[in-house]
Amino acid sequence: MRGPEETAQRVKNYLGKHDRLIGLLGAQIEEVKPGYAKVALTVEDKHLNAANVCHGGVLFTLADLAFALASNSHGQTALALEVSFSFLKAAVVGDQIVAQAREVHLGRRTATYLIEITRQGDEKVALMKGTVFRFERPFPPTE
Amino acid sequence: MRGPEETAQRVKNYLGKHDRLIGLLGAQIEEVKPGYAKVALTVEDKHLNAANVCHGGVLFTLADLAFALASNSHGQTALALEVSFSFLKAAVVGDQIVAQAREVHLGRRTATYLIEITRQGDEKVALMKGTVFRFERPFPPTE
Amino acid sequence: MRGPEETAQRVKNYLGKHDRLIGLLGAQIEEVKPGYAKVALTVEDKHLNAANVCHGGVLFTLADLAFALASNSHGQTALALEVSFSFLKAAVVGDQIVAQAREVHLGRRTATYLIEITRQGDEKVALMKGTVFRFERPFPPTE
Amino acid sequence: MRGPEETAQRVKNYLGKHDRLIGLLGAQIEEVKPGYAKVALTVEDKHLNAANVCHGGVLFTLADLAFALASNSHGQTALALEVSFSFLKAAVVGDQIVAQAREVHLGRRTATYLIEITRQGDEKVALMKGTVFRFERPFPPTE
């Protein structure tokens, strides 16, 4: 039988291997624990929008990765229903951005998370709140 | 002096040339009119998450592109403050997905948009609501 | 056996009788159809905040009533999971405000609605997007 | 010249005196500091919806009061642009519910807050995220 930490580690490995946007954007999964995840990215030219700042889609995807890892970390399949995203500061080329997802509420059928994006360790860039639906099937799906 | 349709066309050309995620994801800007934009993408393997469906980050980025085009279409710089995103159905490889942004409210300092994502013409995939801050400087920035 | 219109009518009567805030605020349920509801209120002094405009809590409650009616209109218990609310214009004493909820997506376990608030028939005051969880038990609960 | 704590106290007094929904619902402003506010309410029969649990509109209004107090606490007029609200648990008659608003980001033109609602001291009932527009005029308006 597996403990919660071991399950979270398996979720990290499986998602890290199969999620295609991690490679496309060049993100790094730094840590996954039960109800928690941390994902990092260094902003490069390929991440910019027409205003030459980091694309909203890149910030969102980084937050979404941390959200998916944290919400699936218990070994039960979770799917996003709703997210709301607040843009606080623009990130620029060279910024080390980190998204951390923390569990606010874990219910039987739904769960809610706060995902904070910072740069250079502590300056807030964005804040996301998200809710998932929890299915009864295991995650990773193959086990 | 430029008319509103011509301004929207210049915004389309500028953003289409300078936004890096359009190329990275393979999106197409189909139409930009004052307060409106339409962006399309065909879901490929590179767009998938670990559950083998189209990544939330791809759907969000497509909606965000339409949102950016519609909110900057008046020739005045607009920056996203807040978005909320509802995931309605999963999109899969081969789906032709389209994001259309429509202006709900155009105020002096802020404006609000609804962005609908559909596949194969009419089936709803996602719905986003977003609010921008409107700066007094022109867009594109170089004019 | 009951048709969908008759079920919606029963939901209107039951909620109109048992929801305490309808009386406290002085709201009127104008219409309920399957997946749709319309609720009205005339702004009075008792609805104002410290800035002497209609309280955000009053606008939200009016939208929430339309949302609850529309999402329960099929005769199945629905509970709000998430809402996002955009304030577009301030409403003032004497304004006739109306909230209309329309179904965007009706899934087996969740459903999504847009609720528009207008005043004097057509001027937009606020826009809400909301998602419910659908329980398997009937609504009204006593049937 | 006034210090930040004294300004927050003046905002508390002014809003407490002029906001009509505080009296209508029976809410209590417990504390206001720069960027922070705490508001409480005991759920009574008059606060219930047709499912006999505390109305979403009551929870929202309580959170909105804390949000308004915290965002105006610096003595500068702030108006809500966008909020998103997650319903975590139902509150029932007799519950002592408390909304606490905390500042996440204070910008020159906009600011963002998290508002947490708990009951009986620590059990989470709801979570709201909200963004205001900051006007250049003082609050309270009469000074």
Give the tags.
homotetramer; 143 residues; alpha+beta; Thiol Ester Dehydrase, Chain A; 6-stranded antiparallel beta sheet; 3 helices; 6 strands; 27% helix; 43% strand; globular
Condensed summary:
Four copies of one chain form a homotetramer. Chain A is α+β, with helices and mostly antiparallel strands and 143 residues long.
Describe the structure.
Four copies of one chain form a homotetramer. Chain A has helices spanning 4-18, 20-25, 56-72; strands at residues 28-33, 36-42, 76-87, 96-106, 110-119, 123-138. Chain A is globular, with a radius of gyration of 15 Å. With 143 residues, chain A is α+β, with helices and mostly antiparallel strands. Chain A is built from three helices and six strands. The longest helix of chain A has 17 residues, at 56-72. The first copy, chain A, starts with a helix and ends in a 5-residue tail after the last strand. Chain A has a single domain (4-138), classed as Roll (Thiol Ester Dehydrase, Chain A), CATH 3.10.129.10. Helix content of chain A is 27%, strand content 43%. Chain A has a six-stranded antiparallel β-sheet. Chains in contact: A-B, A-C, A-D, B-C, B-D, C-D. Chain A binds chain B through residues 14-15, 17-21, 24, 45-52, 55-58, 60-61, 64-65, 68, 77, 79-87, 90, 140-141, and chain B through 14-15, 17-21, 24, 45-52, 55-58, 60-61, 64-65, 68, 77, 79-87, 90, 140-141. Strand 3 (76-87) of chain A pairs antiparallel with strand 3 (76-87) of chain B.
